[in-house]
Amino acid sequence: MTTAAPTDTSKWTKARRELGLRLARRLFDELAKSPMTLESKKRPGASWSLIVAHVAAAAVYSVSLVSGIAGVVIVLPPWATVFDPIVGVMLLLLAWAARPQAAAPPDYWLDRAEFPTLYAAADRIAKRSEPNRFKRSRGPLSSTPTAGSLVGLGGRLWSWVHR
Fold first, then answer.
1. What's the pLDDT at 126?
2. Would you say the pTM of this structure is higher than 0.85?
């Protein structure tokens, strides 16, 4: 494995380059011992970090839902005190602030019209790697790699939302 002549010869640059080469060699040797094929690919189960992420997301969304319902119930008369509608409005504002929101796609996403060769290569790789993976869902929320106009998770959704 050869590299181009470095322009910066500081100790830090040399150490980073050596570490990168060592890790690349280790990864190459690991893949050379047992190449990954479609038949040998295993579907991993849910990892602990994925479970924790889903639980955290459910907690955030449930705060929005519960505070919205509580705010509506408290705002409706009869009120026991003057503070009931104030607390209800505060809960409704909390529900509004904690609601799930769709964010605009980042500026660094590449448009399909501007980079057709890149998308053609990505489409070929996607078709060869897992041919039946994306055929289950259709519509604006599907994750079909060839149908979206943006690269990234949810690209199909963003292409549908920003038409």
1. 81
2. no
